[in-house]
Design goal:
alpha/beta, seven-stranded parallel sheet, two-stranded parallel ribbon, 9 strands, about 260 residues, Rossmann fold, binds NADP nicotinamide-adenine-dinucleotide phosphate
Length: about 260
């Protein structure tokens, strides 16, 4: 079990939704939190709110696809607080379009944010975590990273890619003291659904989670690192069923998405 007070976390995508709720929850648990996203005002307001509540927080306005900016942020956090214990790769974007309506450049742009930016930020913190002999990388995937559905080919592909990247990294870091976790939220009420490209809309399947529920699951994972986190546990069953009987799951999903 990790003791959280005084430890240092970087949260990407902290200006809204799951990242913002997670940053607040980590601050309440006593962690020092570096807040990253593009919208400066939102980050500064959150940092001020967290400091007002007794936490240590710093705003880092940047685009996570800008590798030099991400590297400079990691160096600054390390200089400010002496270490980086946890990196939460949460910044991401949705994309709702049929496979045949997805342009290659749109897919490249989505990969750039949902996958390549995770690689960049993780490579930026790993040398420091290796020197520390400990650390924790937490990547935020999606239920759609376990099971593709209609209208989500490109988005699902980025989240499946994130799964492979995360599993391989976890194996490579075994014994290093650095934990690697993958979180699979279900539909969560955030701006995500308003800001994503929406070229097709299918009926939503299954329940809805709050950002606080997802943030609680992430904080539990920071305290006690796990390989995989399912903030809504039945998704684990879906993952197993989909691997064992994909045709059956296709039929059930097609009915639910009708
Ligand atoms: N909401 C859901 O239903 C759901 C379900 C499963 C998984 N997820 C995953 O959960 C994560 C968070 O999603 P959310 O629902 O909290 O979305 P959100 O409310 O739209 O927040 C996305 C965050 O990412 C930041 N961001 C986007 N592009 C960025 C960039 N280029 N550089 C830096 N920051 C960037 C945004 O801040 P700025 O705009 O200020 O940069 C914002 O803080 C994503 O990885 C998403 O795929 C969401």
């Amino acid at each position: 079990m990790a003791d959280l007070p005084g430890r240092v976390a970087i949260v990407t995508g902290a200006s809204a939704g799951i990242g913002q709720a997670t940053a607040r929850a980590l601050g309440r648990a006593g962690m020092r939190v570096a807040l990253c996203a593009r919208r400066r005002e939102r980050l500064e307001a959150l940092a001020a709110e967290m400091r007002g509540a007794g936490a240590e927080a710093a705003a880092y306005p940047l685009d996570v696809t800008d590798a030099p900016a991400v590297g400079a942020m990691v160096d600054d956090v390390a200089a400010r607080w002496g270490r980086v214990d946890v990196l939460i790769n949460n910044a991401g974007r949705g994309f709702a379009a049929r496979f045949e309506d997805t342009a290659p450049q749109e897919f490249r742009d989505l990969l750039e944010l949902n996958v390549l930016a995770v690689l960049t930020a993780t490579q930026a913190v790993l040398p420091l975590m290796r020197r520390q002999g400990r650390g924790h990388i937490i990547n935020i995937s999606s239920v759609v990273g376990r099971r593709g559905i209609r209208g989500r080919a490109a988005y699902a592909a980025t989240k499946f890619a994130l799964g492979g990247l995360t599993e391989s990294l976890r194996m490579e870091l075994r014994g290093s003291g650095i934990a690697v976790s993958l979180v699979y939220p279900i539909y969560t009420t955030t701006e995500f659904h308003d800001v994503e490209t929406k070229r097709v809309v299918f009926p939503r399947m299954g329940p809805v989670q709050s950002v606080e529920q997802v943030a609680r699951a992430i904080v539990r994972c920071v305290k006690r690192p796990r390989a995989e986190v399912y903030p809504y546990w039945p998704v684990r069953l879906l993952a197993v069923l989909s691997a064992a009987a994909p045709g059956l799951v296709d039929r059930v999903m097609a009915r639910l998405q009708r």
